Amino acid sequence: MGTAITGVVVLAIVVLIIRSMVKDKRNGKSIQCGGDCKHCGGHCH
To answer: Is there a contact between 21 and 31 (Cβ–Cβ < 8 Å)?
Structure first.
């Protein structure tokens, strides 16, 4: 039973992380540099 609960918790965390990454991608933020182009030399555009 503990294994199932732990699995569900880990799965929920992974889903939230993936959702956040998709949301950031749709908003134009780069996954590699976080969208702060002044620190990555402007490679975002």
So the answer is: yes
In Å, what is the CA distance from 27 to each residue of 1, 3, 10, 12?
39, 36, 26, 23
Q: The whole model's pTM is what?
A: 0.61
What tens digit of pLDDT does each residue of 1-45 get?
A: 999 999 999 999 999 999 998 887 777 766 666 556 666 655 555
By CB atoms closer than 10 A (0-12, 13-18, 19+), residue 23 is: exposed
DSSP, collapsed to helix, strand or coil, labels residue 35 as coil
Structure tokens at 3: 């294994």
Q: Are 43 and 33 in contact (CB under 8 A)?
A: yes
